[in-house]
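User: Please check C-alpha coordinate order:
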Amino acid sequence: MYKAIFIDIDGTLRNNKKEISTRNKSAIKNITNKGVLVVLCSGRPRKYTENLSRDCNASRYIIVSNGGAIYNYETKKVLYEDCMDKDACIKLYKMAEQVDANFIMNVGDYRVVNKLQRFDGSEMEMPNNVENFIKENNIVQCVIADENFEKIKKLKPEIEKINKVSIKNQHKSLTNKNILPTGKIYYDIANEDSSKGKAIKQFCKILNIDLKDVVAIGDSYNDIPMFKVAGHSVAMKNANEEVKKEADEITGSNEEDGVAMFLEKLGK
Protein backbone atom coordinates (compact mmCIF):
# COMPACT_ATOMS: atom_id res chain seq x y z
CA MET A 1 0.00 0.00 0.00
CA TYR A 2 1.23 3.50 -0.82
CA LYS A 3 1.89 5.91 2.06
CA ALA A 4 0.75 9.18 0.47
CA ILE A 5 -1.40 10.21 -2.49
CA PHE A 6 -1.17 13.73 -3.90
CA ILE A 7 -4.28 14.88 -5.75
CA ASP A 8 -4.76 17.96 -7.90
CA ILE A 9 -8.09 19.80 -7.49
CA ASP A 10 -9.37 21.49 -10.65
CA GLY A 11 -9.92 19.13 -13.56
CA THR A 12 -8.97 16.20 -11.33
CA LEU A 13 -10.79 15.91 -8.00
CA ARG A 14 -13.58 18.32 -8.95
CA ASN A 15 -15.95 18.00 -11.87
CA ASN A 16 -16.60 20.77 -14.38
CA LYS A 17 -19.14 22.35 -12.01
CA LYS A 18 -16.38 22.71 -9.38
CA GLU A 19 -17.98 20.01 -7.23
CA ILE A 20 -16.36 17.11 -5.37
CA SER A 21 -18.66 14.14 -5.86
CA THR A 22 -19.93 11.96 -3.04
CA ARG A 23 -18.13 9.03 -4.64
CA ASN A 24 -14.77 10.85 -4.59
CA LYS A 25 -15.28 11.88 -0.96
CA SER A 26 -16.15 8.32 0.04
CA ALA A 27 -13.14 6.88 -1.78
CA ILE A 28 -10.80 9.35 -0.06
CA LYS A 29 -12.29 8.54 3.35
CA ASN A 30 -11.87 4.81 2.77
CA ILE A 31 -8.24 5.15 1.71
CA THR A 32 -7.36 7.47 4.63
CA ASN A 33 -8.93 4.92 6.99
CA LYS A 34 -6.27 2.50 5.75
CA GLY A 35 -3.58 4.90 6.97
CA VAL A 36 -2.74 6.55 3.65
CA LEU A 37 -2.15 10.31 3.65
CA VAL A 38 -4.25 12.05 1.00
CA VAL A 39 -2.80 15.47 0.26
CA LEU A 40 -4.50 18.03 -1.97
CA CYS A 41 -1.85 19.58 -4.21
CA SER A 42 -3.11 22.64 -6.04
CA GLY A 43 -2.44 26.03 -7.53
CA ARG A 44 -5.15 27.38 -5.22
CA PRO A 45 -4.35 29.50 -2.12
CA ARG A 46 -4.16 28.13 1.40
CA LYS A 47 -7.58 28.78 3.00
CA TYR A 48 -9.44 27.78 -0.14
CA THR A 49 -7.53 24.48 -0.34
CA GLU A 50 -7.96 23.83 3.39
CA ASN A 51 -11.75 24.12 3.08
CA LEU A 52 -11.79 21.61 0.22
CA SER A 53 -9.46 19.26 2.08
CA ARG A 54 -11.73 19.22 5.12
CA ASP A 55 -14.79 18.73 2.92
CA CYS A 56 -13.39 15.69 1.10
CA ASN A 57 -11.95 13.85 4.14
CA ALA A 58 -8.31 14.34 3.11
CA SER A 59 -5.35 14.72 5.49
CA ARG A 60 -4.44 17.81 7.49
CA TYR A 61 -1.62 18.57 5.08
CA ILE A 62 -2.02 20.64 1.91
CA ILE A 63 0.35 21.74 -0.84
CA VAL A 64 -0.77 25.06 -2.31
CA SER A 65 0.16 27.72 -4.87
CA ASN A 66 1.64 25.19 -7.32
CA GLY A 67 4.12 23.98 -4.72
CA GLY A 68 4.79 27.36 -3.15
CA ALA A 69 3.93 26.17 0.37
CA ILE A 70 3.18 23.12 2.50
CA TYR A 71 0.80 23.69 5.40
CA ASN A 72 -0.60 21.69 8.31
CA TYR A 73 -3.97 23.33 8.98
CA GLU A 74 -4.60 21.43 12.22
CA THR A 75 -1.46 22.80 13.88
CA LYS A 76 -1.51 25.99 11.73
CA LYS A 77 2.14 25.39 10.93
CA VAL A 78 3.87 26.25 7.65
CA LEU A 79 6.18 23.33 6.91
CA TYR A 80 7.74 24.85 3.80
CA GLU A 81 7.58 28.03 1.73
CA ASP A 82 9.20 28.97 -1.57
CA CYS A 83 8.74 32.76 -1.51
CA MET A 84 8.83 34.83 -4.68
CA ASP A 85 11.41 37.45 -5.55
CA LYS A 86 10.14 40.88 -4.41
CA ASP A 87 11.24 42.81 -7.49
CA ALA A 88 9.61 40.25 -9.77
CA CYS A 89 6.31 40.61 -7.91
CA ILE A 90 6.41 44.39 -8.27
CA LYS A 91 7.03 44.08 -12.02
CA LEU A 92 4.12 41.64 -12.38
CA TYR A 93 1.82 43.97 -10.45
CA LYS A 94 2.73 46.93 -12.65
CA MET A 95 2.22 44.82 -15.76
CA ALA A 96 -1.30 43.82 -14.67
CA GLU A 97 -2.22 47.36 -13.70
CA GLN A 98 -1.03 48.73 -17.03
CA VAL A 99 -3.55 46.57 -18.93
CA ASP A 100 -6.28 46.75 -16.23
CA ALA A 101 -6.15 43.02 -15.49
CA ASN A 102 -6.85 41.17 -12.25
CA PHE A 103 -3.74 40.77 -10.10
CA ILE A 104 -3.69 38.28 -7.25
CA MET A 105 -1.02 37.45 -4.68
CA ASN A 106 -1.20 34.35 -2.50
CA VAL A 107 -0.10 35.51 0.96
CA GLY A 108 -0.64 33.32 4.03
CA ASP A 109 -4.24 32.06 4.11
CA TYR A 110 -5.57 34.54 1.60
CA ARG A 111 -5.54 36.05 -1.87
CA VAL A 112 -4.64 39.72 -1.92
CA VAL A 113 -6.27 41.25 -4.99
CA ASN A 114 -6.50 44.53 -6.87
CA LYS A 115 -10.13 43.75 -7.78
CA LEU A 116 -12.33 41.93 -5.27
CA GLN A 117 -14.06 38.93 -6.85
CA ARG A 118 -15.14 36.89 -3.84
CA PHE A 119 -16.97 38.16 -0.79
CA ASP A 120 -16.59 35.01 1.33
CA GLY A 121 -13.64 36.26 3.38
CA SER A 122 -11.03 34.47 1.23
CA GLU A 123 -9.84 37.68 -0.44
CA MET A 124 -8.25 40.87 0.88
CA GLU A 125 -8.17 44.11 -1.07
CA MET A 126 -4.71 45.30 -2.01
CA PRO A 127 -3.40 48.16 0.16
CA ASN A 128 -2.61 51.56 -1.32
CA ASN A 129 1.16 51.13 -1.04
CA VAL A 130 1.52 47.87 -2.95
CA GLU A 131 5.31 47.96 -3.17
CA ASN A 132 5.70 48.21 0.61
CA PHE A 133 3.21 45.37 1.09
CA ILE A 134 5.20 43.16 -1.28
CA LYS A 135 8.46 43.96 0.50
CA GLU A 136 6.97 43.16 3.93
CA ASN A 137 5.14 39.90 3.12
CA ASN A 138 5.93 36.38 1.91
CA ILE A 139 4.30 35.88 -1.48
CA VAL A 140 4.29 32.34 -2.86
CA GLN A 141 2.36 32.89 -6.08
CA CYS A 142 0.99 35.67 -8.29
CA VAL A 143 -1.87 35.36 -10.76
CA ILE A 144 -2.69 37.64 -13.67
CA ALA A 145 -6.19 37.08 -15.08
CA ASP A 146 -8.87 38.63 -17.25
CA GLU A 147 -11.84 37.52 -19.32
CA ASN A 148 -10.21 39.01 -22.41
CA PHE A 149 -8.26 36.16 -24.02
CA GLU A 150 -6.14 38.32 -26.34
CA LYS A 151 -5.17 40.69 -23.50
CA ILE A 152 -3.77 37.84 -21.39
CA LYS A 153 -2.20 36.00 -24.31
CA LYS A 154 -0.17 39.08 -25.26
CA LEU A 155 1.36 39.26 -21.76
CA LYS A 156 3.14 35.91 -21.97
CA PRO A 157 6.34 37.15 -23.68
CA GLU A 158 6.58 40.00 -21.18
CA ILE A 159 6.16 37.67 -18.20
CA GLU A 160 8.84 35.37 -19.57
CA LYS A 161 11.32 38.26 -19.61
CA ILE A 162 11.09 38.73 -15.83
CA ASN A 163 14.00 37.13 -13.99
CA LYS A 164 13.62 34.54 -11.21
CA VAL A 165 9.97 33.64 -11.94
CA SER A 166 8.10 31.49 -14.46
CA ILE A 167 4.58 30.53 -15.47
CA LYS A 168 3.55 27.40 -13.56
CA ASN A 169 0.04 26.95 -14.91
CA GLN A 170 -2.31 28.68 -17.35
CA HIS A 171 -5.81 28.48 -18.72
CA LYS A 172 -5.98 25.46 -21.02
CA SER A 173 -7.18 27.62 -23.93
CA LEU A 174 -3.72 29.24 -23.99
CA THR A 175 -2.07 25.92 -24.90
CA ASN A 176 -4.91 24.07 -26.65
CA LYS A 177 -6.74 25.70 -29.56
CA ASN A 178 -9.58 23.19 -29.20
CA ILE A 179 -10.56 24.58 -25.78
CA LEU A 180 -12.77 27.65 -25.71
CA PRO A 181 -11.40 30.65 -23.77
CA THR A 182 -14.27 30.94 -21.30
CA GLY A 183 -14.25 32.50 -17.84
CA LYS A 184 -11.09 34.03 -16.43
CA ILE A 185 -8.03 33.47 -18.63
CA TYR A 186 -5.03 33.32 -16.29
CA TYR A 187 -1.36 32.72 -15.65
CA ASP A 188 -0.15 31.29 -12.33
CA ILE A 189 3.36 32.65 -11.73
CA ALA A 190 5.84 31.58 -9.04
CA ASN A 191 9.56 31.21 -8.40
CA GLU A 192 11.46 29.77 -11.33
CA ASP A 193 12.36 26.51 -9.59
CA SER A 194 9.12 26.17 -7.61
CA SER A 195 6.83 23.26 -8.55
CA LYS A 196 4.43 20.70 -7.17
CA GLY A 197 7.14 18.11 -7.65
CA LYS A 198 9.67 20.03 -5.57
CA ALA A 199 7.08 20.47 -2.81
CA ILE A 200 6.30 16.75 -2.81
CA LYS A 201 10.02 16.00 -2.39
CA GLN A 202 10.13 18.42 0.55
CA PHE A 203 6.99 16.91 2.06
CA CYS A 204 8.37 13.38 1.86
CA LYS A 205 11.67 14.50 3.36
CA ILE A 206 9.89 16.14 6.30
CA LEU A 207 7.65 13.14 6.98
CA ASN A 208 10.33 10.56 6.15
CA ILE A 209 8.39 8.96 3.27
CA ASP A 210 10.18 7.30 0.36
CA LEU A 211 9.15 8.83 -2.97
CA LYS A 212 8.57 5.36 -4.41
CA ASP A 213 5.74 4.99 -1.89
CA VAL A 214 3.68 7.93 -3.19
CA VAL A 215 1.15 8.49 -5.98
CA ALA A 216 0.38 11.70 -7.88
CA ILE A 217 -2.93 12.27 -9.69
CA GLY A 218 -3.49 15.21 -12.03
CA ASP A 219 -4.62 16.56 -15.37
CA SER A 220 -2.53 19.57 -16.38
CA TYR A 221 0.99 20.70 -17.21
CA ASN A 222 1.67 21.86 -13.66
CA ASP A 223 1.08 18.26 -12.55
CA ILE A 224 3.92 16.85 -14.67
CA PRO A 225 6.55 17.75 -12.03
CA MET A 226 4.49 15.64 -9.57
CA PHE A 227 4.53 12.74 -12.02
CA LYS A 228 8.31 12.94 -12.38
CA VAL A 229 9.01 12.50 -8.65
CA ALA A 230 6.19 10.17 -7.53
CA GLY A 231 6.61 6.41 -7.45
CA HIS A 232 3.39 6.08 -9.45
CA SER A 233 1.61 8.71 -11.55
CA VAL A 234 -2.00 8.82 -12.73
CA ALA A 235 -3.38 11.16 -15.39
CA MET A 236 -7.06 11.93 -15.84
CA LYS A 237 -8.73 10.98 -19.12
CA ASN A 238 -9.51 14.68 -19.65
CA ALA A 239 -5.81 15.62 -19.46
CA ASN A 240 -3.89 16.95 -22.44
CA GLU A 241 -2.07 14.29 -24.46
CA GLU A 242 1.34 15.62 -23.39
CA VAL A 243 0.33 15.17 -19.75
CA LYS A 244 -0.96 11.64 -20.34
CA LYS A 245 2.36 10.64 -21.90
CA GLU A 246 4.13 11.47 -18.62
CA ALA A 247 1.84 9.25 -16.51
CA ASP A 248 2.14 5.57 -15.59
CA GLU A 249 -1.59 5.06 -16.07
CA ILE A 250 -4.78 6.80 -17.12
CA THR A 251 -7.93 6.85 -15.01
CA GLY A 252 -11.41 8.12 -15.86
CA SER A 253 -12.16 11.79 -16.41
CA ASN A 254 -13.06 14.30 -13.71
CA GLU A 255 -16.67 13.97 -14.88
CA GLU A 256 -16.50 10.18 -14.35
CA ASP A 257 -15.04 10.30 -10.82
CA GLY A 258 -11.65 9.20 -12.13
CA VAL A 259 -10.03 9.81 -8.74
CA ALA A 260 -12.46 7.45 -7.05
CA MET A 261 -11.99 4.87 -9.81
CA PHE A 262 -8.27 4.73 -9.03
CA LEU A 263 -8.62 4.84 -5.23
CA GLU A 264 -11.29 2.12 -5.18
CA LYS A 265 -9.04 -0.14 -7.22
CA LEU A 266 -6.13 0.63 -4.90
CA GLY A 267 -8.16 -0.10 -1.79
CA LYS A 268 -9.23 -3.59 -2.80
Notes: Residues 13 and 259 are 6 Å apart (CA to CA). Residues 86-191 form a domain with the Hypothetical Protein, Haloacid Dehalogenase-like Hydrolase; Chain: A; domain 2 fold (CATH 3.30.1240.10). The mean pLDDT is 95. The chain has two domains: 4-81+194-267, 86-191.
